[in-house]
Amino acid sequence: MAVLGLAVLGLWSVPALALSPGSAGLDQPCADRARLVGALASQHAEKQTALGLDHEGRVVEIFTSPYGTWSILVTSPDGTSCLVSAGESWRRTDDKLDRHVSSRVH
Predict the structure, then answer these.
(1) pLDDT digits over 28-38, tens only?
(2) HEC per residue, 17-56
(3) Do β-strands 47-53 and 81-87 pair in parallel, antiparallel, or remain unpaired?
(4) What are phi and psi of 60, to 5 degrees?
């Protein structure tokens, strides 16, 4: 588990990508989308498993690996892509579980 954590943390400091800070002034790695997706695949075995659009027209993508690592990549309409979060212990939820939780919340 410690090795996984170090691997995920390593993504935030990928010097080979020459990442620049995000446009919001946050310390988010930003680069060409293809380069970020390539790094997620080659360094963490992550692939896109979900995506959607936020209220500002940005594409929000979730990348996960069979090892439980995950990353969230956001691409702005201007084409800038930034890694906004990453972690471990990702679990896919079961539709039955989703319905059970939803029925208790509403």
Answers:
(1) 799 999 999 99
(2) HCCECCCCCCCCCEECHHHHHHHHHHHHCCEEEEEEECCC
(3) unpaired
(4) -110, 120
Q: Give the global pTM.
A: 0.66
Q: What is the largest CA-CA distance in the chain?
A: 47
Span 58-102, pLDDT tens digits: 999 999 999 999 999 999 999 999 999 999 999 888 766 666 555
| C-alpha angle 54-29-93 in degrees, rounded to nearest 5 | 50
Of the candidates 75, 81, 82, the one whose C-alpha atom is nearest the C-alpha of residue 26 is 82
* Cα 79 to chain centroid, rounded: 16
d(CA 36, CA 100): 36
